[in-house]
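ARCHIVE CARD
CATEGORY: sequence design from structure
SOURCE FIELD: tokenized fold
FIELD CONTENT:
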């Protein structure tokens, strides 16, 4: 295991009969982006990762912005720190306020705090140009300053074009591409390793770049999705409690 929260299994070693975990060391590599075409398994992978954070990091706080607003995160509908569709701008502001509170010393904790934003690109495309640029600026602040204050970002979307992040895209030190990846996606996110990557992978498999280490990723299925949802709800509600305290 490479340390931290488990992302999945090393598919190369698994093919040889060796079960080895691939981990996200979120202290060294604070921000992650997950991308892939529709049907690649992005949402399942994201939900599973959030559940692991909720279960294995006892003081973790999670905010979820779900611009797609379908049924995937509807189990969070009663949570204050769950933002759907046109509420996502409020969620981004709340995450930035969390960072600023820690910067100002109003919140002295450095516990794990995560903003998960599903379909960031679609959200930006829905905004007028000036508002979209302001949203990118806010996300850039989180990406560039969050590490020192225990603030992390997880983005899930179909493509990771630089235009959606301004100059802050390089702050994603964990990159996960799932399913069949286009040549353009490989060039954008794995350019230094493009000759090592097989871009054609089935649903639930992909490529993970953690720092400068490349892995073939296999995402196992869980037997109890309700337990997965419960772990996510716990961390989202914890963020609500901490927000009330501050």
């Amino acid at each position: 295991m490479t340390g931290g929260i488990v992302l999945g299994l090393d598919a190369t070693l698994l093919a040889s009969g060796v079960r080895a975990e691939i981990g996200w060391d979120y202290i060294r590599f604070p921000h992650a982006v997950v991308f892939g075409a529709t049907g690649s398994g992005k949402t399942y992978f994201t939900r599973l990762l959030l559940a692991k954070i909720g279960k294995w990091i006892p003081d973790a706080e999670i905010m979820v912005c779900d611009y797609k607003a379908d049924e995937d995160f509807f189990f969070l509908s009663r949570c204050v720190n769950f933002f759907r569709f046109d509420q996502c701008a409020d969620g981004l502001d709340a995450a930035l306020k969390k960072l600023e509170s820690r910067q100002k010393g109003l919140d002295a904790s450095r516990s794990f705090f995560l903003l998960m934003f599903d379909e960031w690109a679609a959200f930006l495309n829905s905004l007028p140009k000036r508002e979209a640029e302001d949203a990118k600026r806010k996300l850039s602040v989180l990406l560039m300053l969050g590490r020192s204050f225990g603030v992390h970002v997880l983005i899930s979307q179909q493509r990771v074009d630089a235009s959606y992040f301004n100059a802050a895209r390089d702050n994603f030190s964990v990159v996960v591409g799932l399913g069949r990846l286009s040549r353009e996606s490989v060039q954008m996110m794995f350019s230094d390793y493009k000759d090592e990557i097989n871009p054609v992978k089935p649903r639930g498999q992909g490529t993970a770049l953690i720092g400068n280490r490349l892995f073939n990723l296999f995402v196992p299925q869980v037997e109890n999705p309700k337990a997965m949802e419960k772990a996510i709800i716990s961390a989202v509600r914890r963020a609500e409690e901490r927000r009330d305290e501050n």
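CARD ANNOTATION: The chain has seven helices and ten strands. The mean pLDDT is 94.
SHELF: design records, drawer C
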